[in-house]
């Protein structure tokens, strides 16, 4: 696995898919159905171009941005009253320490074997961006998926509309070429749209619960162990729906869907449900 940010075959595949879908949608489907010289055709071409550009831009940032490194000098302060929660190892009960990196790991940080480093609030390592998804690039990754899902559905509408459009008989030869391109584009779009929609829905669930993918799987095991012991498991970072959204998308609701990073905190400590006063209702 290459280092984060370096071009790999999956990244080139993503860029090739974006390029092919964009070309077919604008210069084949829209041109064939509405015509690029018409107001409707030009408007749809411009809107899809802007959406495709947003996809490429956010994808590039997700690939290149560092997900958040654990400072080598980090050391947990067990006497810090403002940080009562310290994650410990499953075995032995010691504070989490990374033998490979040679330093302690703050809460929610994990060592990535592919990146060969500890990542702050690590969600997962994604081969499609050749990078980890962590504290510093999670929002950008989420916004990219949002733009990609929207672009896929938009392209599907334009492709279907073009496929249903009847072309004059004297344009039969060019029609065959266009129809082939549209069929190939549809074959690419169908599984891509399904996969991205599932991924988008999954991360909406994680954001609403203030969990990472790793924490979800760890929580399943913790819940099973708690129920086995007759106890109830509560995810410590679940602050309520609104606070969970703020922790990922930022405090300004008007910038939630903007492709800018507005991280809350430095990734070394996080608010927990223990920090919320009992009088504060949780959504």
UniProtKB/TrEMBL annotation:
Keywords: Acyltransferase, Membrane, Transferase, Transmembrane, Transmembrane helix. Its main location: membrane. GO terms for molecular function: protein-cysteine S-palmitoyltransferase activity. Residues 94-217 form the Palmitoyltransferase DHHC domain. It is found in: Membrane. It is an enzyme of class 2 (transferase). Its EC number is 2.3.1.225. GO terms for cellular component: membrane. It is a multi-pass membrane protein. InterPro entries: Palmitoyltrfase_DHHC, PFA4/ZDH16/20/ERF2-like. It holds the Pfam family DHHC. The chain crosses the membrane at residues 7-30, 42-64, 140-161, 181-208. It catalyses: L-cysteinyl-[protein] + hexadecanoyl-CoA = S-hexadecanoyl-L-cysteinyl-[protein] + CoA. The DHHC domain is required for palmitoyltransferase activity. Belongs to the DHHC palmitoyltransferase family. This is S-acyltransferase. It comes from Oryza glaberrima. The gene is LOC127774011.
């Amino acid at each position: 696995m290459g280092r984060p940010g370096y071009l790999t075959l999956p990244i080139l595949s993503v860029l090739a898919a974006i390029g092919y879908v964009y070309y077919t949608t604008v210069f084949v489907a829209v041109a064939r159905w509405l015509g690029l010289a018409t107001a409707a055709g030009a408007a749809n071409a411009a809107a899809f171009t802007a959406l495709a550009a947003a996809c490429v831009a956010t994808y590039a940032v997700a690939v290149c941005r560092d997900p958040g490194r654990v400072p080598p000098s980090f050391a947990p302060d067990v006497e810090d009253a403002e940080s009562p929660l310290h994650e410990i190892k499953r075995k032995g009960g010691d504070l989490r320490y990374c033998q490979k990196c040679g330093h302690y790991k703050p809460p929610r940080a994990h060592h990535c074997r592919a990146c060969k480093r500890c990542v702050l609030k690590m969600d997962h390592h994604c081969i499609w961006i050749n990078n980890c998804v962590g504290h510093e690039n999670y929002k950008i990754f989420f916004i990219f998926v949002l733009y990609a899902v929207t672009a896929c559905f938009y392209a599907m509408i334009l492709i279907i509309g073009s496929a249903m459009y009847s072309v004059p008989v004297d344009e039969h030869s060019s029609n065959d070429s266009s129809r082939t391109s549209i069929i190939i584009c549809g074959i690419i779009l169908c599984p891509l749209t399904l996969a991205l929609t599932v991924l988008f829905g999954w991360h909406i669930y994680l954001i609403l619960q203030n969990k990472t993918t790793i924490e979800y799987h760890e929580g399943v095991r913790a819940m099973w162990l708690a129920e086995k012991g007759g106890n109830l498991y509560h995810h410590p970072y679940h602050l309520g729906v609104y606070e969970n959204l703020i922790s990922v998308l930022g405090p300004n609701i008007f910038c939630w869907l903007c492709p800018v990073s507005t991280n809350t905190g430095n990734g070394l400590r996080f608010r927990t449900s223990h920090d919320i006063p009992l009088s504060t209702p949780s959504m």
